[in-house]
Amino acid sequence: MKKKIFIGIISLLTVLCVFGTNTASAAITSKLRINLCGIKDSDGYDRTGWQTVAYTWMSKLDANVYKRTEFDKNQLVSYIKSSDIFVIHTHGSKQSLRAVDGNKEITRVIYSDINNLSSKSLSGLDLAYLGACSVGE
User: Fold this and answer.
1) Cα–Cα distance measured from residue 67 to residue 121, given in angstroms and rounded to the nearest whole number
2) Phi/psi-derived region of residue 125, left when phi > 0, alpha when psi is between -120 and 50, beta in every other case
3) Residues 39-75: pLDDT tens digits?
4) DSSP alpha helix (H) spans, the chain
5) How far is residue 80 from each of residues 77, 84, 98, 132, measured CA to CA in Å?
6) pTM here?
C-alpha cells in the first residue's frame, strides 16, 4: 500500500514538473497554492512520511507549499478551499476523511460537507488527491 501511494504522489509531482504551472488559476494568481496534508495520529499510524519528498519536489515550482500534519474539520475544509492543488493522505472510509488536531482529537470530514461547498468557493482548485483507505470503494 505504501509503495502505491508513494508511486502515485511521485507521478503527480512528475506531471507538475514536466508540464509546469500553466494552469488557468496559476495564470490568475502569482503562485500556486499547494496544501499537503497528512496525519500522525495517536493509534501509531504515521501518514506524513511522503510529505518531505513531495515538499522537496513541489518547492521547485513557483508555489507556496504547506505541509500540514495537525488540522481539524474546519481547517481541512479551509485548506481545500484555499488550494490550487490539494493532497491528503489520512484514514478514511466511503463517507468521510479523518483528521486529528493539535490536541490529538479526532474529527471526521464528511464528503457531503465538501460536496455542499459552492462551486465558487472551489473555483481555484485544479487538482485534489485523496489518499485514504476505502475512499475509492
Assistant:
1) 22
2) beta
3) 876 666 777 877 888 888 877 777 888 888 888 888 8
4) 2-19, 24-28, 49-58, 73-81, 111-115
5) 5, 8, 14, 16
6) 0.69
